[in-house]
Design a protein that fits this description.
The chain is an alpha/beta fold and about 220 residues long. The protein is about 50% helix and about 15% strand. The strands form two sheets. It has a five-stranded parallel beta sheet with strand order 2-6-1-7-8, sandwiched between helices. Strands 3-4-5 form a three-stranded antiparallel beta sheet, covered by helices on one side. The longest helix is centred in the C-terminal third of the chain and has 17 residues. The site of 2'-deoxycytidine-5'-monophosphate has 16 residues, from helix 2, helix 4 and helix 8.
Length: about 220
Protein backbone atom coordinates (compact mmCIF):
# COMPACT_ATOMS: atom_id res chain seq x y z
CA UNK A 1 0.00 0.00 0.00
CA UNK A 2 1.36 3.46 -0.87
CA UNK A 3 0.67 6.91 0.60
CA UNK A 4 1.98 9.95 -1.29
CA UNK A 5 1.42 13.67 -0.99
CA UNK A 6 3.07 17.00 -0.20
CA UNK A 7 4.88 17.82 3.05
CA UNK A 8 2.66 18.25 6.07
CA UNK A 9 -0.44 16.59 4.58
CA UNK A 10 -0.45 14.12 7.50
CA UNK A 11 1.06 11.18 5.63
CA UNK A 12 3.37 9.91 8.40
CA UNK A 13 0.82 10.04 11.19
CA UNK A 14 -1.83 8.37 9.04
CA UNK A 15 0.57 5.80 7.55
CA UNK A 16 1.75 4.75 11.04
CA UNK A 17 -1.83 4.32 12.29
CA UNK A 18 -2.95 2.43 9.19
CA UNK A 19 0.10 0.15 9.35
CA UNK A 20 -0.66 -0.58 13.02
CA UNK A 21 -4.33 -1.33 12.22
CA UNK A 22 -3.36 -3.71 9.40
CA UNK A 23 -0.35 -5.23 11.16
CA UNK A 24 1.83 -3.96 8.28
CA UNK A 25 5.35 -2.50 8.34
CA UNK A 26 5.53 1.27 7.93
CA UNK A 27 8.32 2.59 5.71
CA UNK A 28 9.13 6.31 5.77
CA UNK A 29 10.89 6.94 2.44
CA UNK A 30 11.31 10.67 3.19
CA UNK A 31 13.56 9.65 6.09
CA UNK A 32 15.72 7.78 3.57
CA UNK A 33 16.21 10.96 1.47
CA UNK A 34 16.94 12.85 4.67
CA UNK A 35 19.50 10.17 5.64
CA UNK A 36 21.37 10.41 2.34
CA UNK A 37 21.21 14.22 2.50
CA UNK A 38 22.65 14.08 6.01
CA UNK A 39 25.49 11.80 4.87
CA UNK A 40 26.37 13.97 1.87
CA UNK A 41 26.45 17.07 4.04
CA UNK A 42 28.54 15.37 6.74
CA UNK A 43 31.11 14.38 4.13
CA UNK A 44 31.02 17.69 2.27
CA UNK A 45 29.93 15.98 -0.95
CA UNK A 46 28.36 18.47 -3.40
CA UNK A 47 24.70 17.97 -4.34
CA UNK A 48 25.26 17.19 -8.02
CA UNK A 49 25.97 14.19 -10.20
CA UNK A 50 29.64 13.27 -10.25
CA UNK A 51 32.29 10.87 -8.97
CA UNK A 52 32.08 12.16 -5.38
CA UNK A 53 28.36 11.46 -5.13
CA UNK A 54 28.79 8.11 -6.90
CA UNK A 55 31.47 7.11 -4.38
CA UNK A 56 29.24 8.19 -1.49
CA UNK A 57 26.32 6.06 -2.75
CA UNK A 58 28.59 3.09 -3.37
CA UNK A 59 29.79 3.22 0.20
CA UNK A 60 26.43 4.14 1.81
CA UNK A 61 24.42 1.80 4.00
CA UNK A 62 20.98 2.74 5.21
CA UNK A 63 18.72 0.62 7.40
CA UNK A 64 15.71 0.87 9.67
CA UNK A 65 16.15 -0.92 13.01
CA UNK A 66 13.65 -1.52 15.78
CA UNK A 67 14.76 -0.49 19.27
CA UNK A 68 12.40 -0.50 22.25
CA UNK A 69 9.27 0.14 20.16
CA UNK A 70 10.87 2.90 18.09
CA UNK A 71 12.17 2.70 14.55
CA UNK A 72 15.69 4.06 14.20
CA UNK A 73 17.35 5.12 10.96
CA UNK A 74 20.94 3.94 10.83
CA UNK A 75 23.17 5.52 8.18
CA UNK A 76 26.65 4.05 7.83
CA UNK A 77 26.45 2.73 11.38
CA UNK A 78 25.25 6.02 12.91
CA UNK A 79 21.82 6.51 14.43
CA UNK A 80 20.55 9.70 12.74
CA UNK A 81 16.86 9.34 13.70
CA UNK A 82 16.59 12.66 15.55
CA UNK A 83 19.20 14.58 13.57
CA UNK A 84 17.35 14.27 10.26
CA UNK A 85 14.05 15.66 11.56
CA UNK A 86 14.80 19.41 11.48
CA UNK A 87 13.16 21.80 9.00
CA UNK A 88 16.59 22.40 7.52
CA UNK A 89 17.13 18.70 6.84
CA UNK A 90 13.73 18.61 5.09
CA UNK A 91 15.04 21.13 2.59
CA UNK A 92 18.37 19.30 2.26
CA UNK A 93 16.42 16.09 1.49
CA UNK A 94 14.26 17.88 -1.06
CA UNK A 95 17.36 19.26 -2.82
CA UNK A 96 19.24 15.95 -2.94
CA UNK A 97 16.09 14.07 -4.01
CA UNK A 98 16.14 15.83 -7.39
CA UNK A 99 19.41 14.07 -8.33
CA UNK A 100 18.74 11.00 -10.55
CA UNK A 101 21.50 8.76 -9.12
CA UNK A 102 20.20 9.34 -5.58
CA UNK A 103 16.63 8.52 -6.65
CA UNK A 104 17.84 5.45 -8.47
CA UNK A 105 19.77 4.17 -5.45
CA UNK A 106 16.98 4.80 -2.97
CA UNK A 107 14.18 3.52 -5.24
CA UNK A 108 16.02 0.17 -5.53
CA UNK A 109 16.32 -0.03 -1.74
CA UNK A 110 12.64 0.94 -1.31
CA UNK A 111 11.58 -1.77 -3.79
CA UNK A 112 13.54 -4.39 -1.89
CA UNK A 113 11.86 -3.33 1.37
CA UNK A 114 8.36 -3.20 -0.16
CA UNK A 115 8.63 -6.44 -2.09
CA UNK A 116 8.32 -8.33 1.18
CA UNK A 117 4.64 -7.34 1.11
CA UNK A 118 2.39 -6.15 3.96
CA UNK A 119 4.00 -2.69 3.93
CA UNK A 120 2.73 0.87 3.99
CA UNK A 121 5.23 2.96 2.03
CA UNK A 122 4.96 6.68 2.46
CA UNK A 123 6.61 9.31 0.22
CA UNK A 124 6.22 11.32 -2.98
CA UNK A 125 6.56 8.78 -5.80
CA UNK A 126 5.58 5.48 -4.18
CA UNK A 127 2.37 4.99 -6.17
CA UNK A 128 3.63 6.55 -9.40
CA UNK A 129 7.20 5.26 -9.85
CA UNK A 130 8.41 2.84 -7.18
CA UNK A 131 5.27 0.70 -6.77
CA UNK A 132 3.02 1.46 -9.76
CA UNK A 133 1.20 -1.86 -9.18
CA UNK A 134 0.47 -1.35 -5.47
CA UNK A 135 -2.93 -2.76 -4.52
CA UNK A 136 -4.05 0.37 -2.64
CA UNK A 137 -2.76 3.90 -3.37
CA UNK A 138 -3.58 7.00 -1.37
CA UNK A 139 -2.80 10.62 -2.14
CA UNK A 140 -3.16 12.94 0.85
CA UNK A 141 -3.38 16.69 0.39
CA UNK A 142 -4.20 19.68 2.62
CA UNK A 143 -4.20 23.45 2.27
CA UNK A 144 -0.88 25.24 2.77
CA UNK A 145 -2.31 26.88 5.91
CA UNK A 146 -3.37 23.58 7.48
CA UNK A 147 -0.02 21.97 6.64
CA UNK A 148 1.89 24.96 8.03
CA UNK A 149 -0.06 24.86 11.27
CA UNK A 150 0.61 21.16 11.76
CA UNK A 151 4.30 21.45 10.96
CA UNK A 152 4.62 24.38 13.40
CA UNK A 153 3.07 22.29 16.19
CA UNK A 154 5.40 19.37 15.39
CA UNK A 155 8.54 21.50 15.41
CA UNK A 156 7.41 23.27 18.58
CA UNK A 157 6.93 19.92 20.33
CA UNK A 158 10.52 19.11 19.40
CA UNK A 159 11.74 22.39 20.87
CA UNK A 160 12.39 24.08 17.50
CA UNK A 161 10.87 27.55 17.50
CA UNK A 162 10.28 28.51 13.87
CA UNK A 163 7.89 31.32 12.84
CA UNK A 164 4.73 30.14 11.05
CA UNK A 165 5.46 32.45 8.10
CA UNK A 166 8.89 30.84 7.64
CA UNK A 167 7.37 27.34 7.86
CA UNK A 168 4.74 28.18 5.22
CA UNK A 169 7.43 29.71 2.99
CA UNK A 170 9.58 26.54 3.33
CA UNK A 171 6.59 24.26 2.60
CA UNK A 172 5.76 26.26 -0.53
CA UNK A 173 9.39 26.05 -1.67
CA UNK A 174 9.47 22.33 -1.00
CA UNK A 175 6.18 21.87 -2.90
CA UNK A 176 7.72 23.69 -5.88
CA UNK A 177 10.97 21.68 -5.64
CA UNK A 178 9.25 18.30 -5.25
CA UNK A 179 6.60 18.91 -7.93
CA UNK A 180 8.78 20.50 -10.59
CA UNK A 181 11.82 18.21 -10.63
CA UNK A 182 12.32 16.28 -13.84
CA UNK A 183 12.58 12.84 -12.30
CA UNK A 184 9.70 11.30 -10.34
CA UNK A 185 7.97 14.59 -9.46
CA UNK A 186 5.28 14.64 -6.80
CA UNK A 187 1.98 13.87 -8.48
CA UNK A 188 -1.11 11.79 -7.82
CA UNK A 189 -1.16 8.38 -9.51
CA UNK A 190 -4.21 8.06 -11.78
CA UNK A 191 -5.55 5.19 -9.69
CA UNK A 192 -4.80 6.77 -6.27
CA UNK A 193 -7.59 7.77 -3.91
CA UNK A 194 -7.22 11.44 -2.98
CA UNK A 195 -8.16 12.68 0.50
CA UNK A 196 -8.02 16.35 1.46
CA UNK A 197 -7.11 16.22 5.16
CA UNK A 198 -7.40 20.00 5.86
CA UNK A 199 -10.58 19.78 7.90
CA UNK A 200 -10.29 16.18 9.12
CA UNK A 201 -8.90 14.72 12.34
CA UNK A 202 -6.29 11.96 12.15
CA UNK A 203 -8.91 9.42 13.24
CA UNK A 204 -11.25 10.55 10.44
CA UNK A 205 -8.54 10.24 7.80
CA UNK A 206 -7.50 6.80 9.09
CA UNK A 207 -11.15 5.72 8.97
CA UNK A 208 -11.49 6.82 5.36
CA UNK A 209 -8.26 5.06 4.44
CA UNK A 210 -9.43 1.84 6.11
CA UNK A 211 -12.74 2.08 4.22
CA UNK A 212 -10.82 2.54 0.97
CA UNK A 213 -8.66 -0.50 1.80
CA UNK A 214 -11.75 -2.58 2.44
CA UNK A 215 -13.40 -1.42 -0.78
CA UNK A 216 -10.30 -2.12 -2.86
CA UNK A 217 -9.81 -5.53 -1.33
CA UNK A 218 -13.43 -6.59 -1.42
CA UNK A 219 -13.70 -6.72 2.37
CA UNK A 220 -10.70 -8.97 2.88
CA UNK A 221 -9.02 -6.64 5.41
O1 LIG B 1 8.50 13.27 3.71
P1 LIG B 1 9.67 14.13 4.08
O2 LIG B 1 9.29 15.54 4.37
O3 LIG B 1 10.49 13.53 5.18
O4 LIG B 1 10.60 14.13 2.76
C1 LIG B 1 11.76 14.92 2.65
C2 LIG B 1 12.04 15.20 1.19
O5 LIG B 1 12.45 14.00 0.54
C3 LIG B 1 10.88 15.72 0.37
O6 LIG B 1 10.80 17.14 0.38
C4 LIG B 1 11.14 15.18 -1.01
C5 LIG B 1 11.98 13.98 -0.80
N1 LIG B 1 11.25 12.73 -1.03
C6 LIG B 1 11.16 12.29 -2.33
O7 LIG B 1 11.62 12.97 -3.24
N2 LIG B 1 10.58 11.10 -2.60
C7 LIG B 1 10.05 10.35 -1.62
N3 LIG B 1 9.50 9.17 -1.92
C8 LIG B 1 10.11 10.78 -0.28
C9 LIG B 1 10.71 12.01 -0.01
Amino acid sequence: MTIDGPSGAGKSTVAKCVAARLGFTYIDTGAMYRGIGWLARERGVPFREGPELDALLQDASLAFEEHHDTTRLIVNGEDVTERIRSAEMGMVASDISAIPSVRHWLSALQRSLGERGNTVLEGRDMGTVVFPDADVKLFLTASLEARGGRRAAELCARGEAVALSKIVEDLARRDRNDSSREIAPLRKADDAIEIDTSALTVAEVVDRVMQAVERRRGGRV
